[in-house]
């Protein structure tokens, strides 16, 4: 039997992932995280072994990964956790997966591709809502237009956020936006571009955001210009605009600390009913200067989908199906990976302006 260690198992998303892994995976599970008092009740609840350790000391992490075939890291912000776990995975020959959406984490792990190859391990970040659906849609669009030069992706999510998601977002407040231009991740203002997009529910205002695909879509498709949009209310654009002017202030440690404390006090995350009822719409558009194609996806609520895709990515990795080296979800499992999950529907790539009945 293979062994999967879930790090950050007692966080909001870690619990969803753990519940699903218990139901779905034919593997030995080990629950892990830095706090013994938070970890033990969860391990008792599932009658699973647990390993409590921080990521501060490499040898300690390596010792805890001994005999583990794959790690699924759910402890974010991943800028604080991914590197230490990958350091240890390289030493112990353990495959690494996580649910990050942080551009700098994707880029840092992509830079470790050769190291991962040499260690004969897969390094597969981003196996949650960020970036599985958008990454798979990007790869699907690139199959329709292989010489494309421009890629736009976007989503409209219906549902609320967990504490960890908002805390991770707070960390990047004041850093502005990011797009990929001519193959390079490029800093832009928070409101770099707005446009009206039909995500599948009629046109709505959308704004560019520094989403993970700015990093990953380039690795998946080779398209050198990538931007990612999300649907926003009109007044949110004004608020985002203001964050650029306030950037020097928002970047300060005490502001971040205060905001994080408010988030910790006030946020819980979507409950079971919200997760059941929520959904997300994903859109993508690809162009080569002559033709433009678009495609859409409808998915379950973002945290529900995250648990589904993360556990399936772990299952495939334990089964030896994930190539070694740095991978994106679509480079590992193909553009159709996302379509296997219950509640996911894809409107396949077609030239912009045509509809299903035009086919
Ligand atoms: N890809 C996706 O679509 C997706 C979906 C959901 C969440 N996420 C991301 O996943 C992360 C977790 O979200 P969440 O909602 O589960 O948050 P959460 O409930 O706050 O849980 C965060 C977990 O990470 C642990 N952690 C944080 N910093 C750590 C560190 N330096 N060392 C060790 N453990 C650390 C926490 O442990 P303590 O409680 O001991 O601090 C906790 O177990 C966030 O970054 C979020 O953005 C991504």
Automatic annotation (TrEMBL):
It comes from the Archaea. Residues 5-123 form the Saccharopine dehydrogenase NADP binding domain. Pfam families: Sacchrp_dh_NADP (PF03435). InterPro entries: NAD(P)-bd_dom_sf, Sacchrp_dh_NADP-bd. Gene3D superfamilies: NAD(P)-binding Rossmann-like Domain (3.40.50.720). This is Saccharopine dehydrogenase family protein. It comes from Halomarina salina.
